[in-house]
Amino acid sequence: MKRGARNHEGNRHGIGSPVRGQPRRPLLAFAAAILSGLPVNAVAFEAYYTRLDSESEGEIGKYADLVVSLGRTKRLEFCRANGYLPQWRTAGGVHQVESLFGREDGDPNRFYSHVRLLEDGPDRIVVHWRHFKDITPVAKANGELDSLNPRGITGVVHETFTIHPDGAVEREVRDAADTRYEDWIDPRLITRQSLGLTASGIEHGPVKPGQKPPFLPRPPCAGSPVKPRGGPAAPAHHWDFDDGMKPHGDKVRESASAADCEITGLMTRFKKGVSGTALALDGYYTGVSMESKPATHDAVTVEAWIALDAYPYNIAPLVHHSRGFGKQGWYLGLDAYGHPLVTVAGHTVKAKAAVLPLYQWRHLCATVGDGWIRLYLDGEELAADAFEGALTSPSTPLLLGRNNEPERCTDAVRGPLRNLGFVYGIQGLLDEVSVYREALAADQVKQSYDALRPADRRSDLAKGVLPGEAGAARRFGATYKTLPFSDVWDPLWRDLPGSEIVVKFDSNPCSVVYWRGTNLAPNWVTDNNRWMADQSSENGGKHGCSEHMADKQLRHCHARIIENTPARVLIHWRYPCVDVSYQNLNPGAWTDEYHTIYPDGTGVRQVVWNSPGGPPGFQDIQFLTNPGETALDVMNLQAMTVGNLGGDIRELTWGPEKRVPGNPLEDACFEVLNSKSEHKVFAMFQGGFIKPWGAGEHSKHTPDPFAGPWNHWPMHLVPSDGRFAVATDRVTHFALGANDAATKFGSLVLYGFTRQPAARLVPLARSWCRPPEITALAGCEASAFHKPSRAFPIVAGKEAMSVRIKATGENPIANLCFTIRNWGHRGAAKLETIGAVAKDVRQGTIVDTDGTRTMILWAELDSTTPVDVLISGAAPSADYVARPGPARVPSK
């Protein structure tokens, strides 16, 4: 008789409570629970996910609602049917928590709403409710194909409820309306209210409203040493952006006229510039606007210092006073490939041989006059052309850093319906912008450049890095986290701290990361931060692929920790199939995914398509690159190794001439992805049909042979369902291959990390695809192996129970998990094995969807011969009635 070498104990949702013993309850208590409508074995102060509305259509998922139990006859319910506005249920009736926004139902389909359990401890439970108070402006913008309307971000409301065992509740509300990021993170925004949950109802305390934004002045930031500008002439307009060095508002001073010019967008952020501070631009919303009158001029000079963070999606301005991107007026900027340009009255001069570098300060200048347009970079003339037209400015504001009209991105994979126009701008830092009413001579341009030329050209914006959190953890588990990327991307969002999820392992230095930049999809991240991001359910819409990638503003996708014990983690990821217009959002086209992750670094993905039609394809292996990387920095040309259950292994190699290999093993059901890392990601399926692809969809700007790379996703807001990468300036993704037959075999994938040769994965693949049989020997009922969770379900009937796993070479055991329902208490289990050694045993109890306790028991154990497992420590209820499930094998 063998016992595990280690035994890790824990309980609940990961949000983490200590293990607490609980005595058996008398039958009188069970009777009281039944009469109250609560399940037997329901705990006194606990929270759990469930589905309260059993009559609803199937698109809501099995964890749609959340219940907080405060004793046997009282519970606080966050119900989808109510839009998640909480209700207090007691023996005397149901009582509604008051809405603070005076609306009956602003989101009838719950497209924008969800709840999360953030903390579940013995002293307090914290629930997060995310919703939109009014979706009308967003729906109107969708109808106008304005899918990047900022209200899709600032329309959100976050409410948290901190609940105590005595019924005291603290409510905090953050309303993102009219906020910049600096307002959003300010505690003065928070509205507070205290509630009391009593046997007779709810005692609503007074509402203490938060202050209205903006919260001015903004605090100053450090700048570079301020240099005397000097210069050859007095400009008609000048912005030095040194406003950031002192307490400031959301405007910048134009020094020639002393006009205060509005900073548009979702943030006001300054960084070190070439002199003093510079304005940070996010590439989408941030710019500067100055009211101007139409005028005709004989000559003009425009100059600016720029430190690019990425190349724009199409032509974008440093500064312009124009319509039609310079068809009327003048426009100084650059194109999508980093080439400087100036357009005056429709006449464009472009420096095609020059490319602005990233993360470095450069001076760009254009002069118009004396019959010429001249373009300068760092004081040197790059290009020139004769110009005889009129220089007339339109009746539009003079703008810095952002366009005033929509345009489509360049390098679209597909047609214009799938590639919508949008208003965008420069991503980076802008400093020392001047406009002159004369054409400066070449030596004057050089003088202006020399006056502010920095000794250190490096941008104060750090290059973004994918937040993979590589490195081994002290313990296995999931954590709600905030994952920063960059100083200009992070302020776009209006999320609470801890809106992303990281799953870490103590057995390897890898991670599973649910990051907002990938729409909270799971990313399997290796030891050196190589990200594998698989696809999602995908169908078609008028405006392109309808998938998780198209939710550009993260209005709908969300991920939640359902279970978090030492034995396993369960994550629920929910998303709609919607295209980049958001116009085809509908209740049926949603997917619920359940990711069951184990301490050995493996996890099963179950994809549940909630529509009467057949499930769409969801699987396509994709890797991400960091800024500055190519696909060949991430992946070897021998990129994939495939294998079948018979042990046949084949290596697949991509060729330098964009050649994609075929797969000679049609029944291959697993693949190892050969990234340039010590640990490799693998994927397993319940059937064959792994097909590499990509020969027909490849960027002409990159040297690798893989499909893509594309940069419409991840993290980028460009409303396109496909844009080829033009450089290594942005995070990109590229693809290797897909198993489109996965939907025929249960829509399941088993992922994991390995350092071993592919052949060593055959036993694991067999154990999951052809699992051994189980027989209940005593004290329990046992069900056949459940592939979506990679576990054997058991229902406890007695304190001690035993089962036999009939392992063979063709049906082996490759680590064991039992889910033991009717466990009855928080107490620990004792596990013993006969026939094989359990090297490690981990366990934890959860509150299941029916409000009763389930034990999760995981053992590191491999065997090709039968194994008897003896489990004791349960406190089962004789009155327990399990929900309908798979056929059970009764104990003898």
- Average pLDDT across residues? 92
* Sequence of strands across the biggest β-sheet: 39-40-41-42-51-47-46-44-45
Number of strand segments? 61
- SS summary, helix count: 7
The CATH class label of the largest domain is: Mainly Beta
Structural class: mainly beta
Classify the fold: give the CATH topology of the largest domain: Beta-galactosidase, Chain A, domain 5
The Rg value, from CA coordinates, equals 30 Å
**What is the annotated CATH architecture of the largest domain?**
Distorted Sandwich
Q: How far is the N terminus from the C terminus?
A: 21 Å
The domain count comes to 4
Strand content: 35-45%
The largest sheet, given as strand count, sense and whether it forms a barrel, is: 9 strands, antiparallel
- Overall shape: it is globular
- The poorly predicted ranges are 1-6, 14-42, 884-892
The helical percent reads under 10%
